[in-house]
Amino acid sequence: MRWLQLHLRSRRVPLALTTATALIALVWALSLAYTDSTTINIRTASLVIMLAVVAVGTTLGGADDALDRTAAVNWPLRRAGHLLLAGATITALLTLSTVTDARYEPFALLLRNTAGLLGLTALGAALFGAAMSWIAPLIWTLIAALPLMDPSRDLRIQVAGWLIQPAGTTAATVCASTLAVAGLLAYTLRGCPLRPASEAALDQ
């Protein structure tokens, strides 16, 4: 399994996992210490998920772009597995809080927002590279977190603010699912775009 260890280290997975875990745990601890609510509100949870996903986004590209395209490795399968495991890990870390007095919940909402934001990040990585993959999820999450974005029956608000819509909102679920599938397919099939040699050298 040495190849797996080398792959994880080359993608900076340990650092990204530590960062995501610390962010999720920090907000959970603050909520447990300073609020009386048993549920971490959806805006805060969405911001936490976005930051965790952005941390994971740094692992979507390696130091050697050419290596990621060699025929010796089934890269599409590896990229798909990488993305799915990242989503499962973030969701699992959030779900651990359900055994405590301050919780990220409900599960359906956590799963929807994680899948949608991770898909959006993967789509950004496939189009612009892992270093720029954080822009779209950050902007969309900040827009959704605005006070004027509340749960609504207006379809446009449900799509623009899908992150803060209640679990079971059809438009929000469809939007998140579309982003998740589009990101998974784009990243799996294309990977990150090739960078100039001078830029890639900075990562080595």
Strand content bin: under 5%
Shape: globular
Mean pLDDT: 87
Cα radius of gyration in angstroms: 17 Å
Q: How many strand segments?
A: 0
Could you describe the largest sheet, including whether it forms a barrel? none
* Percent in helix: 55-70%
Measured between the Cα atoms of the first and last residue, the distance is 23 Å
Structural class: mainly alpha
Helix and strand pattern: HHHHHHHHH
Spans of 5+ residues with little confidence (pLDDT < 50)? 197-202
Work out the helix count: 9
Q: How is the topology of this model organized?
A:
Blueprint: H1 2-10, H2 13-34, H3 42-57, H4 75-95, H5 107-128, H6 135-144, H7 155-160, H8 170-190, H9 197-201
Helix pairs in contact: 2-3, 3-5, 3-6, 4-5, 4-8, 5-8
